[in-house]
């Protein structure tokens, strides 16, 4: 049954790519309310696709935000049930001028498919759809019971997903969650992610004078909110590049010696990594390697800053307002709500009497660690070993998939993070792309995984 | 002759306002190259206006930037010659949404004329045109020889003005320069400005990674250029709110005891000043009052900052670039070129190896002090005393008019800064306006000034 499915993948692969391109043409940007109709269009496209494949139960669920697509194919109550999670929304594409081809006009160059969402996550979720199709169109059935839960708000904080899961525990009941929204360790080096960082994302705005002022007439006595904001941001790190928010590290689980040894064994080429992103020097928290710092230690980054005049030439304004978006990546056992509150206190206490503070929590997510001995983790490892010719590494990733913590908390389910992206895929950046070789390897790995996990006793 | 001229002003005042509104409708924004045709339209409008008034020599001179309008009415070689300087370009009007009425659709509300440029400087330069008209249309002549030099690049650094002056020394030969581009000390409290701050305006841009990165995947090892920029900006002031750039204060002439006493005597209401701009606390350089800090001490303000994602919602980007516009107000005897170089060295030395610096000097201007005993200063003081019923104060202003230093350096001329603005006129801000009472008082003061200065032996 698996051989036939793999053969089907081979025969129909170029059509799979064309279908993915259709999905990528829909600009389903969830962070910008103006694109809400496009997000819905992507949801409807997927639901229609599942129906055509013969999924027995397909539904587009309304939420107070963007819709959730659910699809189900039940084979047999004695089989294990796999819940596939993915997201069909995408990041905003700006800055548009840095794209080689337009972000929503998919284009293949040198074996890579370029488009916003090609890798994150339309391309990766679609591999699961096509693996299911390969069984359904050959064997007429699946090795497991299969459920799809595809959301449209991952890039805007998955605000309505946890309530949905909570309200649909029975519908979503399963034995394990499988997610392809992470990266392989390196080209040709498969990996399964067992750790993810959490996230706390806030926005701060400082208001000084009631209106923009002339910097010549008022400069020297009216404290400038941009200068104040710079001071508050600068104060967030100390000389060792540690974060100064009081209590920030209180709940950080230290890396074990075993974990640090594994980190050292991973084939990580610091020089190549730096070259790929065009930096000639790095800065990590004192005492940690690059790989540790980007996957297993908490961080703080300003994601955006604004204030005053940004146009051409010189404008001598002393602005009324300045603002910034600031996010922190968290590690076990930090709690995003706790970190947001500690950050709020930092800004409240440091804002001088010359300015007023507006502090907003935009979203957060819990960090995750999964046991690598889980049967589905092992089945995934075997499946990937078949396709790639080598066993995957178990690794940690720096990004956040808050829903993984939700699945554990609300459904009691562990998640297998079998990702086929690469860090060089430029997700969240101009020229995002996905290698067609990895799109194919992903589908094949999932075909193998479904077979292997289906053979296990439930 | 003066009485007739004043009576003419009275009779024709409402037409003067309508003519000014026509000039204000032209969006002559010099900082934005897209508006170059509008800047030229304003120049042509003024030249045509001078011709209609019977000015004997009117010319629109080309420069490599925006044109310069010159107009001349020579009466008699034995009379003193007054050179009026003004600028017909305006600041950008953004943020547009904060204007009560559109910036280029002049509207009168409560006796104030609202429009970009109403006060700075179209309204003020136009007072000189109308005072000249009042004599020409009644006496058929003027009490002095009068020259107008009106530029279109004041708000973008007057780049081509000094070379023009240098190339036209003979044409511009005069006994004194008169400029109305400053503010009165307070409503009903006339003043003549004898000191102006200079300006050094720079732009810095930091580049970290070669492209925008995912803050989850790279955060913790790739130093964020926004965080670095915030650190460099924060480091520009110390605890006493003094500027830390090495050598910054080397050439600052200390305030004399006499000057500090005059500052204390001025009717300056700190509480009202703070209320007017909506701040509940100020921050000055340690040891200086508000008035000293905003007029007679050097400052540093960030006029604009940008980097990363500024849109709605949350984007988890670690940006490739961050930038800021930074300006310093200078006092005698600081030199703008010297300060720019010291600022460049600060940024070069503080930029860490994780980032690349691009440092650009946008423009600068020298600080100025004029002797209050100058005959034209005294004539102006007497003229304003006649109109306002009280002698004006001699004061210093925090803003910059770099051309004043150029007139001294290139033509050997002092400038009389008789301004009729108010600090509450919101120049450079939304809802810029000019009181029609001051527009009238300004014209009348100039009529008196021309008479009095014309009686003096040259």
TrEMBL record, chains A, B:
InterPro entries xref list: Cyt/Met_Dipeptidase, Peptidase_M20, Peptidase_M20_dimer
Keywords linked to the UniProt accession: Hydrolase, Metal-binding, Protease
GO molecular function: metal ion binding; peptidase activity
Membrane-spanning residues: none
Annotated ranges, domain Peptidase M20 dimerisation: 194-354
Keyword Cell division on entry: no
A Pfam family reported for this protein in Swiss-Prot or TrEMBL: M20_dimer
Keyword rRNA-binding appears in the UniProt entry: no
Biological process (GO), any one: proteolysis
Name of the featured protein: Peptidase M20
């Amino acid at each position: 049954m698996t051989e036939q499915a793999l053969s089907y993948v081979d025969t129909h692969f170029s059509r799979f790519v064309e279908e993915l391109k259709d999905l990528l043409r829909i600009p389903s940007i969830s962070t910008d309310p103006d694109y809400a109709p496009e997000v819905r269009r992507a949801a409807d496209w997927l639901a229609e696709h599942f129906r055509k494949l013969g999924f027995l139960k397909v539904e587009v669920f309304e939420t107070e935000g963007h819709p959730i697509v659910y699809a189900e194919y039940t084979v047999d109550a004695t089989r294990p049930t796999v819940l596939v999670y993915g997201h069909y929304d995408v990041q905003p594409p700006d800055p548009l001028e840095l794209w080689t081809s337009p972000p929503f006009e998919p284009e293949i160059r040198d074996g890579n498919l370029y488009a916003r969402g090609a890798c994150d996550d339309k391309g990766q979720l679609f591999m699961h759809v096509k693996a299911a199709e390969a069984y359904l169109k050959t064997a007429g059935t699946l090795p497991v019971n299969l459920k799809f839960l595809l959301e449209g708000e991952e890039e805007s904080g998955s605000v309505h997903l946890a309530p949905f899961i909570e309200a649909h525990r029975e519908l979503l009941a399963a034995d394990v969650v499988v997610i392809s929204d992470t990266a392989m360790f390196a080209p040709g080096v498969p990996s399964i992610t067992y750790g993810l960082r959490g996230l706390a994302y806030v926005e701060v705005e400082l208001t000084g004078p009631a209106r923009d002022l002339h910097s010549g007439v008022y400069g020297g006595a009216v404290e400038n909110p941009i200068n104040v904001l710079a001071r508050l941001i600068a104060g967030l790190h100390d000389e060792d590049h540690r974060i100064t928010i009081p209590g920030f590290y209180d709940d950080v689980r230290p890396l074990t010696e075993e974990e640090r040894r594994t980190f050292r064994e991973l084939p990580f080429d610091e020089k190549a990594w730096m070259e790929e992103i065009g930096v000639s020097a790095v800065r990590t928290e004192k005492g940690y390697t690059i790989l540790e710092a980007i996957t297993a230690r908490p961080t703080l980054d300003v994601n955006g800053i604004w204030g005053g005049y940004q146009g051409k030439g010189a404008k001598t304004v002393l602005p009324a307002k300045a603002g910034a978006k600031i996010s922190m990546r968290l590690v076990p056992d930090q709690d995003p709500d706790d970190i947001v509150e500690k950050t709020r206190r930092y800004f409240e206490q440091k804002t001088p009497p010359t300015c007023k503070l507006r502090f907003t929590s935009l979203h957060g997510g819990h960090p995750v660690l999964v046991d690598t001995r889980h049967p589905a983790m092992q089945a995934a490892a075997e499946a990937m070993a078949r396709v790639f010719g080598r066993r995957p590494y178990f690794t940690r990733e720096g990004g956040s998939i808050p829903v993984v913590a939700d699945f554990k908390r609300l459904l009691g389910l562990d998640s297998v993070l079998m990702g086929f992206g690469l860090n060089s895929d430029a997700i969240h950046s101009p020229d995002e792309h996905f290698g067609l070789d990895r799109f194919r390897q992903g589908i094949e790995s999932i075909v193998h995984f479904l077979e292997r996990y289906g053979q296990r006793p439930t």
